[in-house]
Design goal:
It is found in: Endoplasmic reticulum membrane; Membrane. The protein has 215 residues and is α+β, with helices and mostly antiparallel strands. The chain has helices at residues 2-21, 131-138, 142-210; strands at 23-31, 36-43, 48-55, 64-70, 76-80, 85-91, 96-105, 116-124.
């Protein structure tokens, strides 16, 4: 009985970590004619990202909404003109910021055109994997599917902790390097001030001697 309770506690803990390690973002917003709305997200390397979108019909003819997914370097990962409803998926190549943009094109004329409703649901990490297809392809039992999900989850958590440790080491090295540079700059500033004060003393001494104010 105690082992079963312990297993349930560990399972609940892993489920909570799953919500933290994997991501699922569902949102909706209004898109006015001839405007551009973007969503940016910072993702790790080798992370699978899936998205499902739906754009309401334009109330005026000649207005379309384009969808474009790019990375920080401007590389297009997914592009769709006159996007109405669909899905996209990609795997990140490097740790950077990825941008999902909806842009409205076309003239609204002299009439006030209602804004379009854009619905976007983004998943990444373990949340983005389709375990039903994996179970069918590998002929896995329900328990084996759960174990596979927990295995992927634990691997994702380990990667997140390793990344956090790497970032902590980088930040520590940066702080130490900055502290050393500030220390040496302070010494250099003090030497400059001492040198400037010494020069002023000798200059004023020569000046007063020249004016015969002192001997």
């Amino acid at each position: 009985m105690e082992r079963r309770v312990s297993f349930l506690v560990v399972l609940a803990f892993l489920v909570v970590l799953a919500l933290l390690a994997s991501g699922s973002h569902g949102l909706s917003f209004q898109l006015a004619p001839q405007t551009r709305r973007c969503l940016k997200e910072e993702l790790h390397r080798d992370v699978m990202v899936t998205g499902e979108y739906e754009v309401s019909e334009a109330a005026a003819p000649g207005i379309r909404t384009d969808l474009r997914v790019t990375d920080s370097s401007g590389h297009i990962l997914y592009s769709k003109e006159d996007a109405k409803k669909g899905k996209f998926a990609f795997t990140t190549d490097d740790y950077e910021i990825y941008e999902i943009c909806f842009e409205s094109h076309g003239q609204a004329g002299h009439f006030r055109v209602p804004e379009q409703l854009v619905t976007l649901n983004i998943k990444h990490g373990v949340e983005a994997r389709n375990y039903e297809d994996i179970a069918k392809a590998e002929k896995l039992k329900p328990l084996e599917v759960d174990l596979r999900r927990l295995e992927d989850l634990s691997e994702s958590i380990v990667k997140d902790f390793a990344f956090m440790k790497q970032r902590e080491e980088e930040m520590r090295d940066t702080n130490e390097s900055t502290s050393a540079r500030v220390f040496y700059f302070s010494i250099f500033s003090m030497l400059c001030l001492v040198g400037l004060a010494t020069w002023q003393v000798f200059y004023l001494r020569r000046f007063f001697k020249a004016k015969k104010l002192i001997e």
